[in-house]
Write a structure and sequence with these properties.
The complex is a heterodimer of chains A (253) and B (199). Chain A is 71% helix and 3% strand. Chain A is mostly helical and 253 residues long. Chain B is mainly α. The chains are: A mainly alpha (253), B mainly alpha (199). The interface between A and B is large, with 64 and 61 residues.
């Protein structure tokens, strides 16, 4: 299960922007790294982040599951079907530059997955909203991110109901590809038209709560921040910028 | 039934109604995959909400739908590596707005070719991202086509571009057809809520 996992680790107690900034810095940095060794270090850094949050096992499992298919595809596309020269690796011959590229690309993906799954596990959505409110993030932006997440399960349940209802009315989900494309209409139209019919009601509800009013909102319990955390966030971003500087200077790490 | 809608309004600031419609577009982008999976169709249809909002509320709202969908899809799946494809959603939003202004959604006969063209455009935008960021190994079906083309002897960049564009052609044609049907099926009282659709 992907998502927040309550805990008391330093990352759980940190300001929500700190793990987010560190993961973002790692995401930027891995695209500046060009050797399997450097990308391996980035994977280790992501694992260290997960370890600090006490969620290494929790983040590593889905990271490996999500990344596995891409690793296999990369090894086939670049390792087996890559350019010459080839080298024998057990019973198969693999492209040397292709294998190196597959390791860099797969390592990048693994580092990104691990870092952001850690963020999802250690950052409480409620604390993130409080932090954003305290920083003056516009209501519209927060509403879209948080409220869309609550709407998705409701729409999924409605889609499942429509699917069952239309099947009861005789809609067949199988058959030729054309028949399946034509079946999209009776399934998608009621879902979207039904949701559009509720727009007015939701606009009124938002208006009644003062969502359209200008001015800052008050955070009830803003997460504590510190100079150390602010420094750490800037350091992460500075390291990512340095990795890019090395790359553009012709000395990729 | 109100028939085909007229051109949508030009860009303007976001209202509460836009905000609610954007949220709906995001949910459509994220949920429609469930229906596609039930029908075992080899497409994603993850931009129907973006295209719909472009026609209803303009380009700014549609771009927000595309970007928010990409971020939330990453949050829900845990796969943040897909974030660079947000650029494709921006291209889709702008193109769909332009197509709506030109009246492409009035009839299926114009919506389907317009969707086909978007497929080429979106596939062409996604291909460099798939090649440079992922080395061609993205979604399973697309990569299977890429691998098959590589086995046939095509260079990797060409194989990635061909696979990306060919899958997007079908995906975006169906998406445009669906949005055309949705807009054409809007009851008069609902269509009147959107200035661009009111007659």
């Amino acid at each position: 299960m992907i998502g927040y996992r309550a805990g008391t680790s330093p990352l759980h107690r940190a300001h929500p922007y700190t793990p987010l900034a560190l993961a973002s810095a790692l995401l930027l940095a891995v695209f500046a790294l060009g050797s399997p060794g450097a990308v391996g270090c980035a994977v280790l850094a992501a694992a260290l982040l997960a370890l600090t949050g006490n969620v290494l096992g929790y983040s590593a499992r889905p990271a490996l599951t999500l990344g596995l298919a891409t690793w296999v595809l990369l090894l086939v596309l670049h390792g087996l079907l890559g350019p010459e020269p080839f080298a024998a690796l057990g019973p198969v011959s693999v492209s040397e530059p292709g294998l190196r590229r597959a390791l860099v690309l797969g390592g990048r993906l693994t580092a990104i997955l691990l870092a952001f799954l850690t963020v999802l596990a250690v950052v409480s959505p409620a604390r993130l909203v409080e932090a954003m409110t305290a920083r003056g993030v516009p209501f519209a932006r927060m509403y879209l991110l948080v409220s869309s997440l609550t709407l998705v399960p409701r729409m999924r349940a409605r889609a499942a109901l429509i699917l069952e209802a239309q099947q009861c009315r005789g809609l067949r989900l199988g058959g030729s590809p054309l028949a399946r494309v034509l079946a999209l209409g009776p399934l998608v139209l009621p879902l979207v038209l039904g949701a559009l019919a509720e727009v007015d009601e939701q606009v009124l509800a938002l208006d009644a709560r003062g969502a359209g009013l200008p001015g800052p909102r008050t955070a009830l319990e803003p997460p504590a921040d510190s100079a150390l955390q602010r420094g750490l966030r800037w350091l992460g971003l500075a390291l990512a910028a340095a990795a890019f500087a090395f790359r553009f200077a012709g000395h990729p790490l | 039934m109100t028939g085909g809608p007229p051109a949508p309004p030009p860009a303007r600031s976001l209202s509460l109604r836009d905000l609610v419609v954007i949220r709906l577009g995001v949910a459509v982008n994220l949920v429609i995959g469930q229906i596609v999976a039930a029908l075992l169709l080899p497409v994603f249809l993850d931009a129907v909400g973006t295209i719909l909002v472009a026609a209803l509320a303009g380009p700014r709202a549609a771009i927000i739908v595309g970007l928010t969908s990409q971020v939330l899809a990453s949050v829900l799946s845990g796969n943040f590596a897909w974030l660079p494809f947000a650029l494709v959603q921006v291209v889709i939003a702008l193109y769909a707005w332009g197509a709506a202004r030109l009246g492409a959604f009035r009839r299926l006969a114009t919506a389907l070719p317009a969707g086909l063209l978007l497929g080429a455009l979106a596939g062409g935008t996604a291909a460099p991202i798939a090649y440079f960021v992922f080395g061609g190994a993205t979604a399973g079906g697309v990569t299977a086509v890429t691998a098959a083309l590589r086995v046939l002897g095509l260079p990797l960049p060409v194989a990635v571009a061909t696979a990306s564009i060919s899958t997007d052609l079908l995906d975006k044609t169906i998406a445009f057809g669906l949005v055309c049907l949705i807009l054409g099926s809007l009851p008069r009282h609902l269509a009147a809520r959107f200035p661009g659709l009111a007659r």
